Amino acid sequence: MRILVVCGAGASSTFVAQRVRHAAHDQGLAYIAFAGTEQSLPIDLDAADVVLVGPHLGHALERIERDAAPRGTTVVLLPPDIFTDLDGTRTLALVRAAVGGSGGPLPAAEPAPAPQTTSEPDSDGHDI
């Protein structure tokens, strides 16, 4: 899951993106979060599955949703107090609610294959 956090100049979105990235990692989720600006949005949308819009950009929400729709990108307007979410867990919960909790866990290492036997079983089914 690729999460774009958009604000006016990119400063506050950088903090939110970093916090949600850490929260996702702590929960074992394969999410990537990065910051962008309102001006970089037309380019950044191509790399995002979800766009988190800073509360001060509420006036641009309809335009952002319109630009995101053809790409299948989900848009979420962040609440005004989002910058108090210091560990990113509340922001991550907003993302997961918006996309139905998808994203899944980080891939686990594959288990080692079971050893192969080359001997024949005896009448009791044991290898000899």
Automatic annotation (TrEMBL):
The modification Phosphocysteine is found at C7. Keywords: Kinase, Phosphoprotein, Phosphotransferase system, Sugar transport, Transferase, Transport. It comes from Microbacterium salsuginis. Pfam families: PTS_IIB. It comes from the Bacteria. Residues 103-128 are annotated as: Disordered. Residues 1-105 form the PTS EIIB type-3 domain. This is PTS sugar transporter.
